[in-house]
Amino acid sequence: MAGMSPLFRRKPSAPQDRLVTLIRKPGCHLCDDAQLVVEKVCGELGVTWEQKDISTDQALHDQYWEQIPVVLVDGEQHTFWRVNEDRLRRALTE
């Protein structure tokens, strides 16, 4: 066999196919800062993003309360506390 079929090679998703999730809580200045970065990068790349509030979701609170804000890319933890614009952009485009 001359190599794997292209169907079985994992291609990176196009930025428009990605999902960024910002997990935050009310009254959190780091969360506000993180949201500005997420809005900017996702807006530039056409990436869908959402936010979830740990004060209304006990499972998220239990998992992330010490790390807020947390950014997930496609459901996997990307970063917490401070969001680096360039690093998030790379994660969404590479």
TrEMBL record:
<dbReference type="InterPro" id="IPR008554">
    <property type="entry name" value="Glutaredoxin-like"/>
</dbReference>
<dbReference type="Pfam" id="PF05768">
    <property type="entry name" value="Glrx-like"/>
</dbReference>
<dbReference type="InterPro" id="IPR036249">
    <property type="entry name" value="Thioredoxin-like_sf"/>
</dbReference>
<dbReference type="InterPro" id="IPR052565">
    <property type="entry name" value="Glutaredoxin-like_YDR286C"/>
</dbReference>
<protein>
    <submittedName>
        <fullName>Glutaredoxin family protein</fullName>
    </submittedName>
</protein>
